[in-house]
Amino acid sequence: MYSIAIDGPSGAGKSTVADILAEELGFVHVDTGAMYRTIGLYLLRNQIDPSDETAVSECLKKLTLDVEYIDKKQHVYLNGEDVTPFIRTNEVSTYASKSSALKPVRDFLLDAQRNVAKKYNVIMDGRDIGTVILPNADVKFFMSASTESRAARRHKELLEKGESITYEEVLSSMLERDKNDSTRKIAPAIPAEDSVPLDNSGAIEETIEYARKVIKGKITL
Ligand code: DC
After folding, report:
1. Which residues fall within 8 angstroms of residue 42, CB to CB, at 6 or more apart?
2. Average pLDDT over residues 163-168
3. Strands 73-78 and 81-82
4. 7, 2, 65: which is closest to 197 by C-alpha?
5. What is the predicted pLDDT for the residue at 139?
6. Residue 202: its pLDDT value, please?
7. Which residues share a beta bridge with 82?
8. Is the pLDDT of residue 92 over 90?
9. Which secondary structure element, helix H or strand E, spans residue 6, and what is its range?
10. Is the CB–ligand 1 distance for residue 33 below 6 Å?
11. Is 221 inside a domain boundary?
12. Residue 89 located in a structural domain
């Protein structure tokens, strides 16, 4: 099986790039952030402090999380319910970011992520795919984009989903999550040593074109 890792901060455009490349290559796009978001949603719904390791560990015992691919699109199930439409709010982002710093949460999701990569050719996006989850991935990218373009992208997505939020609110909560994600002790969002930097501040077509070239040089299909 082939695997391509795309790590980087939120709003860099990982999901869009991974979707397009997965479609072209016939790979499955695994969005690992959606799995952390599913746990975040459970904690939010049950009013559990996402930084309380003991309380969160207890919750994980009551929770089943399944991931399925229907027409190549990822769906996440929380205790049997398809929660895919409910995990993209700003509140869930905060819960996901805070709880993702806890070891029990990362351990809970580690096998689920590795198992998909055993079953399918994958493009997996997240924060620690190239460093922890798939250290032997065939290609590793670390995607970035200017803070302003990331916040603008996230703001547009949230408005399209009907959330009422200002650009400034998105920017400040994004900066806080960036800090949580990149400075946490376990699996921080940092580039793998052998990753290829992918800057997505400009036109997305250029980013894709460059990624395509890198992939062609490393994978023969
Ligand atoms: O990519 P995203 O914004 O959907 O991710 C939501 C949160 O989950 C993010 O703040 C950090 C966390 N996350 C993580 O810690 N490791 C991953 N592989 C993916 C996401």
Report:
1. 48, 59, 63, 78
2. 95
3. antiparallel
4. 7
5. 98
6. 87
7. 77
8. yes
9. strand 3-7
10. yes
11. no
12. yes
Q: In this predicted structure, what is the pLDDT of residue 17?
A: 97
130 and 37 Cβ atoms separated by less than 8 Å: no
Residue type for 13, please? Answer: G
Both tokens assigned to 65? 């999380």
Angle CA 47–53–56, to nearest 5: 40
What pLDDT is stored for residue 207 in this prediction?
Answer: 96
3-state helix, strand, coil in the chain (%, to 5): 55, 15, 30
CA distance 67 to 97: 19
Residue 164 lies in a domain: yes
- Residues 150, 133: Cα–Cα separation, whole Å: 25
Q: How far is residue 196's CA from residue 206's CA, in Å, rounded to a whole number?
A: 15
Q: Tokens 């036109």: give the residue.
A: 203
Q: Give, using CA atoms, the residue closest to atom 5 of ligand 1.
A: 33
In the chain, the number of structural domains is 1
Average pLDDT over residues 21-40: 97
Q: Given a cut of 90, is residue 221 above it in pLDDT? A: no
The CA distances from residue 5 to 107, 154, 203, 214, in Å, are 19, 21, 21, 12
Is the minimum distance from the CB of 7 to ligand 1 under 6 angstroms?
Answer: no
Q: Is residue 34 part of a domain?
A: yes
Domain coverage including residue 47: 3-216
Q: Is the CB of 50 under 6 A from ligand 1?
A: no
CATH number at residue 153: 3.40.50.300
* 188-206 tens-digit pLDDT: 999 999 999 999 988 999 9
Residue 65 C-alpha to ligand 1 middle, in angstroms? 16
What pLDDT band is residue 71 in, cutting at 50, 70 and 90? confident
